Amino acid sequence: MKYFASVLKYLFTRQSIKKCFIFLLFAIVPAILFAYALPVFRLFGIIKQTEAISFGRLWITYFHHWHILVVLVVGFLLCALSSAFISSTLTYHMRIGQLGLPNFFSAINNDFFPCLVRTASIVVALIVHYSFFILMDSLWNAILVPIAAIIVSAITFAALCLLLVYIVSSLSTWLPTMVITGQSPLNALRSSFLSVKHAQKSFFVFYLIIVAMELASAVIAFYLTTPLIAFIISALTNALAMIFAHVFWFIAYFHENNLKRADLDISSFKRSA
Fold first, then answer.
1. Would you place residue 271 in the very low, low, confident or very high pLDDT band (cuts 50, 70, 90)?
2. CA of 217: how far to CAs of 88, 207, 214, in Å?
3. CA distances from 75 to 10, 38, 64, 83, 192 (A)
């Protein structure tokens, strides 16, 4: 819980409005695209569906229109771009102590490739876990009665979520390691994994809170009868999850490497005031 509390403190204390505006400005567009193309609540429909159909047919039910693939490609690139701007903003604020919009060309030149690698890695992990979930779900639908299939599919989904959270939590400082130190993705992956093994429990708890937040909003959206409201809830939750995750990665990097954060410094004038 300590890292989640640190994230909330960073976002909602000093200069809160400015921070939230900057980060939301970068996060909202990819969040909207993913809320449209891949709403989490559609997975509940897959769990609820108990018809015994083939793995391939069940796999594509999440992508109910062909143009979703185009939206996903655009969303993927914009997500990496947004991640670069957020990372540049956080780096400058925590190292220099000044908060503001990053320089476009500087952010692209310095941070786009690390953010692209990190985003692509998460996409691959999500595809692998989704494919395995669909494989198991199609198996349960084929061999179990409907009620049992729904229950076991829900348990499988929860177990895979926990496994994914555990894997991702072990690489929490990968992106800031690449961005701040300039290491190659492989070297940064190795060093970030080895340097934070002792803190993985705290990282794991943070990711559990983010997943719980996504699932809670998905449950609300699933039972809403107004598609527009469900879409807005999904988009805002995606944006918050993206912002929280980036702030967490950089706070964790500075804390675990015992680096001084300039944004926490208070001038003597402000102290006396």
1. very low
2. 29, 15, 5
3. 27, 11, 17, 12, 27
CA dihedral 245, 251, 255, 260 (to 10 degrees): 160
Lookup: tokens for 250: 């950089």
Confidence (pTM): 0.91
In eight-state DSSP terms, residue 71 is: H
Q: What is the pLDDT of residue 105?
A: 83
For residues 3-35, b (16+ Cβ closer than 10 Å) or e, as one string?
bbebbeebbeeeeeeebeebbeebbbbbbbbbb
Q: How far apart are CA 96 and CA 115, in angstroms?
A: 21
Q: Are 115 and 30 in contact (CB under 8 A)?
A: no
What is the residue type of 246?
A: H
pLDDT digits (tens, 9 = 90+) for 49-91: 888 888 888 888 888 777 888 999 999 999 999 999 999 999 9
Q: In 3-state terms, what secondary structure has residue 224?
A: coil
**Given pLDDT bands bounded at 50, 70 and 90, which one contains residue 266?**
low
> Are 26 and 82 a contacting pair, CB within 8 Å?
yes
* 76 vs 3: CA distance, rounded Å: 27
Residue 50's pLDDT is 84
**Cα–Cα distance for residue pair 238/251, rounded to 1 Å:** 20
Q: Is 42 exposed, middle or buried (0-12, 13-18, 19+ CB in 10 A)?
A: middle
Q: At what angle do helices 68-96 and 174-181 cross, to 10 degrees?
A: 60
